[in-house]
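Course assignment 3, question 2. Fill in each field.
Student: A.L.
Task: Predict the tertiary structure for the chain below.
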Amino acid sequence: MPRNPSTGVYSKPAGTTPSVGQVIDPVPWNALTTDLGNEITNSLPRDGSAPMVAPLKAASGTVSAPGVGFAANPQTGMYLKGGGLLGFTQNGVDVSFDQAMIYAAKSGDYTALASDNNAVHRFTAAAIVTLTAAATLGANWHYTVIADGADVTIDPNGAETIDGAATLVIPNGYSAFIICSGSAFFSNKLMTKILTKADSSAVGSFIDGVLLSNNSGSPNTHVDFAAGSVRSGSSFVSNAASITKRINGTWAVGTGNGGLDAGAVAANATYFAYALRKTADGTFDVVLSTSATIASVTTTLLTGYTIVKCIGVVLTDAGSLIRPFIMNPRDDYTYVTPVKDAVSAAISTTSALLAITVPNGVKSKAKLRIQFTSSATTNAALIHDPAQGTLTAGIGNDGGISGAIQVASNYAIGSSDIWTNTSKQVRQVAGAAGNIWVWTDGFHFPCGRNA
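Answer field:
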């Protein structure tokens, strides 16, 4: 065929350019008319009545003069960018389109590459996502990370930053959209808001639910912790269902297992219950310790867990069994059986400390009932907070919570809620010598419940 398939240039067959008076040779002329018919057939009709049967090869063009344009607006169309990329232009201005979205699940650390542009990666376990250098990824590179199993840390290259910080933590259950400026990285700020607001220390400390109770099946050795949530500053944990921990075994993860941070259960001891948060997935657990502070809890068995907050207290009796109790709203405890902490104990004008059955190592408000007798008439007994110093009983002095009826050796009763010192003690004194009985009905140990 005379048309060059590479250039599209048509060349007439030889012998088809006659002179005047020349007899026309039918062979070349027939070839010419055959070629013309073939080329007309192979040409694309302007009215679009026939389709292309091979790829259409347009000119490369430019952003201002695209290879494929429109008669009414030749500056709008398609052109070939550098690097063999397809470009689109509108009125001579380049129009950008995103590449296809790519989804993948990841279960460990990963380095985000230039080829991950517009990718969505769902991480099913704790992971660190290292970002390739911003200059390599280039401006407009973007990436979405979903934390679906544990926290995911975004770590830019070298000294580069994300949202102005060295790293960005995406908590389990959340996602973040990340974009590159060519020199730094930025997120859609959702995580920044969560980490600076919802998880900030300004939120404060609270306990919602998580009430303690003796386990119905094994009340002497097992403690139940109801569903609820706990926060202390930036640390938060919740449990959707109750769990049970044993006081007669060392700590092991999960409900029904041991709860002690160390050692064996002791008699007449105080065990503080602390809410735990598993670092990997944020799940809830509880550890029991004789330590009244988080800093002194033995953490040997607690690898991978954060101690969030003290959520309550459990006391044992002389037989190393859990003392039966009822936990009321606002961190109030009532013993099923009142504890008689003084039986006809001597009381006099000399102020003295009296030990009672409340948590050790912390101040608590004891719920006390007393009975008082004295051979002296118009006598009074006073029990008070040791923090008040040394008070003097009697109507003319600091008063009392019980007084003898105006008959020698008769009895009087009284009750009051009294704060203790950290050694489980209150202070007692009387206007004159006598004897006193003290029943402890329970105590209030504030952990932060509002209900």
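Instructor remarks: The first strand starts at residue 77 and ends at 80. DSSP finds three helices and 31 strands in the chain.
Grade: pending
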